[in-house]
What we know:
By secondary structure, the protein is of the alpha+beta class. The protein has one domain (about 20-155): Roll (Mannose-Binding Protein A, Chain A). It contains 3 helices and 10 strands; from the N terminus they run H-E-E-H-E-H-E-E-E-E-E-E-E. It has helices at about 1-20, 45-55, 70-80, and strands spanning about 30, 35-40, 60, 90-95, 105, 125-130, 135-140, 145-150, 170-175, 180-185. Strands 1, 2, 3, 4, 5, 6, 7 and 8 form an 8-stranded mixed sheet that branches. Strand 9 (about 170-175) and strand 10 (about 180-185) form a beta hairpin. The protein is globular, with a radius of gyration of 24 Å. Pfam families: Lectin_C (PF00059). Keywords: Signal.
Amino acid sequence: xxxxxxxxxxxxxxxxxxxxxxxxxxxxxxxxxxxxxxxxxxxxxxxxxxxxxxxxxxxxxxxxxxxxxxxxxxxxxxxxxxxxxxxxxxxxxxxxxxxxxxxxxxxxxxxxxxxxxxxxxxxxxxxxxxxxxxxxxxxxxxxxxxxxxxxxxxxxxxxxxxxxxxxxxxxxxxxxxxxxxxxxxx
Length: 186
């Protein structure tokens, strides 16, 4: 009896130590990943930037899904989170050109052993349908809901974003018979 009690206490302690849990109570965990459902419509790049830099809980990626079970899980919660039976949402799968391999936002390439595409793969950016958990492609400038994901034991770290605006410095020198004047225009 005492030995059984010790085993029970040890099991509870081990379970408590190994239970990861998400950083936010609203995030959903499956297969060691936490998923944040963002009820806001953005372009692919803006959604990815939001996950990387603006997620108030932790830096994250656009959603990574390694099997059909996870895709179904995320689609089920997305239906409720986005309040729609026919919504689509960005996941972290894209390619730079239509002949290049599909790559997840976290850097993993889409393997040959599993794919979840329907027959529409003409564009380079992927959304998932809440109605059937299938993927389809859409233009990057369309605006959609999105889902971020992170590993609660090892959340990503990103370098600060760089400005896409370029700065040009022009130097003009004017020579006169008197003192020389140099002006710097920015």
